[in-house]
Every structure is written in structure tokens, then in C-alpha cells.
């Protein structure tokens, strides 16, 4: 049943909304900042923590540790979403940002294989698992928080800032990695330089915790609690009554789950290891593509509040299915400018769907199970496809002998999301479902 938004929502002013958006987004910033740094320094981490005479095997182990953290995301999603739908959004978000910051810091301070032996890769993998648990609860909770603080006429725009923040985190992490790669020798980078970006997690975590603890509960959850609409078992209720929304939500998320990691995390390694660009060139090209992609997000997010979500989802997925393979052929060029143009082309095709994805999934679920529905919809595709994306891309190239083989992975994801977009109802311009 769709009912009017809580009366308290109309009393929220612009300053409160900005604070809510900032507090919700900062955890996502830390998460994706860490992941892009890990991706940029994958070759360095491989040598330090997974030494092997076979460079490809060492790199595969590094990306396997990257994927292991994603296996823990559904666990975090179940734990944090249960707490978020039963007791409120704020506390789970505060705990998750602490765990993300601590685990990121541990990676930055961790001794190498040469210093403590097998304990080094084991601790690294464990830290990634802790991150996975916290991020599993973070993503859906942050989206719930933003969407429930947003007015219906601007929900696409506000939730779009969460996607923008993810892009900003990738850009910032990439920028820091590029500066370090350009300014430090190979020896200094391998010895201590790669650690610096991870250690930024400490101040960011403290800032995130401070902002989140100063916010009140969302108006939608407060209204649900006041009317005794809180579910005792939100997971069971969500699966039983919202299974169709879950299927559509997961389908919508398939494309971002693949694209974020193939286009913006794996690309520096791809350009360096497969194409043969220098580390600086690979990172600089990826950075240029990211900047272009980030600039598009607010525009498409705002546009969705005017023309609707479905037209942008359909346009984006069709564009991705059409241009991805030609764009990957461009990425295979030794000409730096052509590589940048290929990345910008991919960013342009991906941005319309990416900008509206979070608003669409948030609008599929009623308040009593929104945190749970979002967490499952976001984390299951990301676990299966996002965390394994670099591993799958590396395997596809090795198996087929075609450097552009990862394009087919992206195209398949775009087709799945296109079907989901066609099946979804238009949710723009309407109040969130409250019960």
C-alpha cells in the first residue's frame, strides 16, 4: 500500500538534508576509495603479500583476496539490515563506518610476507573480510538514509549524490595513486609509498562517525515505529512479500556491479599488464575517464526527477551493450588519447543507468523492509559479479587470448539490467512506499 510521506518529512530543511546526505555518503567514499587504491596497487601488493615466480599467479591471488571480501558482504547485509529495519538506520551506519576505517588502516600498517611470512596474506585477507561485512551493511543503509530524508520531487538527485561520491572516491584514490606513482621511485613505492593512501582511513572514519552520530533517525523509520509497522523478521517479510521487487532490484544492480569494477578498478591493471602502458599512463588515463564519468552523474540524476527513471535505465543499458566492445578495442591502443576517449565513451554509456540505480531500488521497497531489500539487492549482485570482476576479466583474457574479452562480461550485464528496467514500474515523482 502506498501512502503519503510522513508529516515530519516536510519539516526537514535544506541544511538537515545536506547533513544527512554527507553523513550517509562518507562511508561509501571510504569503501570505494580503499577498493580503487587496492586495484591501483594490485601489482605492488601481489609482490609483497603473494610472492611467486609466476607473475600472473601472484596477481590472480591478489585479486582473489579482493574477491574474498565480497563473499562476506551478504553476511554484513543480513546482520546490519536486520538491525536497521528493527531498530533504526543510524546505529548500524555508525558501526559500519568504524569497521571500514579500522580494517583499511590495518592494511596500511600490515607487515609484508617477507617480514612475517604466511601471516601477512592471512591478515590481509581477514581485514578484507571485515571490510566486506561492514560494507555489506553500509551500502543499503546509506541509501535508505538518503532516500528517506529526500523529498519525492528530488529523490533521484539526492540519491545520485551517493553515486557521485562513489565516483569521487574512485577519482580521489586514483589521483593519490597516480601522484605517488609519478613522484616516487619503484623501490620507495614498494617499500612504504603504497601504504600512505590506506592510512587516510583513520581521519575519514572519525569524521564519518562524528557526522553520523549527530543525526537523528529518518522520518520514515520514526513514522513506522510510531505506527507499530516495524517488522520483527524483516528478511523473511522481504523475501515472502517483496520477492518480485528483490528480483528486479538485483537485475538493475547487475550492470553497476560489473561496470564499477571493470571500468574503474580493474582498468589500471588491464592497461598496464595487458596493453603495456606504464603505471603512470594507465592510472592517468583511468583518472581522466573517471573525471568525465563523475561530471555526468548529477546531470542524469537530476534529469531522472524530470523524465523518470526508466528512460535513463533503458538508454544506458542499450548504450553499454552497443559501445562496450568498440570501446575496449580503443583501450587496446598504445595511443594514450585513444585510450582516454575509450574510457570516456564507456563512462558516457554507463552514467545514465548508474545515476538513477539507487533511487530505483530504494523506491521498490516499503519502509519496514527497505534496509533489507536494498542490502540484498545491492550486495548479492556485487558479491557474485563485482568482487569477482577483475578475476573474471583476467581469466577471460587468458582463456580466449582476446584482450577485449572483458567487454563481453559488461555486455551480458547490460542485457540483464535492460530486462530488469523493462520489468520495473516507473517510480519517479511518487512518495516512498511506507507500508
TrEMBL record:
Localization annotation: Cell membrane
GO CC list: plasma membrane
InterPro entries registered for this protein in UniProt: H+-coupled_symporters, MFS, MFS_dom, MFS_sugar_transport-like, MFS_trans_sf, Sugar_transporter_CS
Domain Major facilitator superfamily (MFS) profile residues, every copy: 20-431
GO molecular function: symporter activity
SUPFAM superfamilies, A to Z: MFS general substrate transporter (SSF103473)
Entry keywords, A to Z: Cell membrane, Membrane, Symport, Transmembrane, Transmembrane helix, Transport
Membrane topology according to the record: Multi-pass membrane protein
Organism domain of life: Bacteria
Membrane-spanning residues: 32-50, 56-80, 92-110, 116-137, 158-180, 192-211, 246-264, 284-301, 313-331, 337-362, 374-399, 405-424
Function: May be a proton symporter involved in the uptake of osmolytes such as proline and glycine betaine.
PANTHER family reported in the protein's UniProt record: ALPHA-KETOGLUTARATE PERMEASE
Record family assignment: Belongs to the major facilitator superfamily. Metabolite:H+ Symporter (MHS) family (TC 2.A.1.6) family.
Stated name of the protein: Putative proline/betaine transporter
Species per Swiss-Prot/TrEMBL record: Saccharopolyspora hirsuta
Lineage: Bacteria, Bacillati, Actinomycetota, Actinomycetes, Pseudonocardiales
Amino acid at each position: 500500500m502506498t501512502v503519503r510521506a510522513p508529516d515530519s518529512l516536510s519539516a526537514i530543511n535544506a541544511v538537515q538534508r545536506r547533513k544527512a546526505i554527507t553523513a550517509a555518503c562518507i562511508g561509501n567514499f571510504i569503501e570505494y576509495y580503499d577498493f580503487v587504491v587496492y586495484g591501483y596497487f594490485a601489482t605492488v601488493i601481489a609482490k609483497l603479500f603473494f610472492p611467486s615466480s609466476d607473475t600472473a599467479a601472484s596477481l590472480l591471488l591478489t585479486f582473489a583476496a579482493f574477491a574474498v571480501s565480497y563473499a562476506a558482504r551478504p553476511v554484513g547485509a543480513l546482520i546490519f539490515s536486520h538491525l536497521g529495519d528493527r531498530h533504526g538506520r543510524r546505529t548500524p551506519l555508525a558501526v559500519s563506518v568504524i569497521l571500514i576505517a579500522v580494517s583499511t588502516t590495518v592494511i596500511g600498517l600490515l607487515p609484508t610476507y617477507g617480514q612475517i611470512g604466511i601471516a601477512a596474506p592471512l591478515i590481509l585477507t581477514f581485514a578484507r573480510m571485515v571490510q566486506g561485512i561492514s560494507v555489506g551493511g553500509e551500502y543499503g543503509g546509506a541509501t535508505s538514509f538518503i532516500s528517506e530524508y529526500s523529498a519525492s520531487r528530488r529523490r533521484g538527485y539526492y540519491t545520485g549524490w551517493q553515486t557521485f561520491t562513489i565516483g569521487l572516491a574512485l577519482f580521489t584514490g586514483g589521483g593519490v595513486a597516480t601522484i605517488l606513482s609519478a613522484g616516487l621511485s619503484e623501490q620507495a613505492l614498494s617499500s612504504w609509498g603504497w601504504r600512505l593512501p590506506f592510512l587516510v582511513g583513520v581521519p575519514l572514519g572519525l569524521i564519518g562517525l562524528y557526522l553520523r552520530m549527530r543525526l537523528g533517525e529518518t522520518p520514515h523509520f520514526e513514522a513506522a515505529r510510531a505506527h507499530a509497522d516495524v517488522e520483527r523478521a524483516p528478511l523473511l517479510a522481504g523475501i515472502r512479500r517483496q520477492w518480485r521487487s528483490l528480483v528486479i532490484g538485483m537485475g538493475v544492480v547487475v550492470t553497476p556491479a560489473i561496470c564499477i569494477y571493470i571500468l574503474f578498478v580493474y582498468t589500471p591493471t588491464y592497461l598496464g599488464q595487458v596493453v603495456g602502458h606504464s603505471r603512470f599512463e594507465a592510472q592517468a588515463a583511468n583518472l581522466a575517464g573517471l573525471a568525465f564519468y563523475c561530471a555526468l552523474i548529477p546531470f542524469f540524476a537530476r534529469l531522472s526527477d524530470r523524465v523518470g527513471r526508466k528512460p535513463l535505465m533503458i538508454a544506458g543499458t542499450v548504450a553499454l551493450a552497443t559501445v562496450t566492445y568498440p570501446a575496449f578495442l580503443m583501450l587496446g591502443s598504445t595511443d594514450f588519447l585513444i585510450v582516454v576517449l575509450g574510457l570516456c565513451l564507456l563512462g558516457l554509456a554507463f552514467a545514465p543507468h548508474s545515476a538513477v540505480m539507487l533511487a530505483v531500488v530504494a523506491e521498490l521497497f516499503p519502509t519496514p523492509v527497505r534496509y533489507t531489500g536494498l542490502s540484498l539487492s545491492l550486495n548479492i549482485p556485487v558479491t557474485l559479479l563485482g568482487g569477482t570482476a577483475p578475476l573474471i576479466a583476467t581469466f577471460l583474457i587468458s582463456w580466449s587470448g582476446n584482450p577485449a574479452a572483458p567487454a563481453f562480461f559488461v555486455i551480458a550485464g547490460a542485457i540483464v539490467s535492460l530486462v530488469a528496467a523493462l520489468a520495473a514500474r516507473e517510480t519517479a515523482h511518487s512518495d516512498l512506499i511506507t507500508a
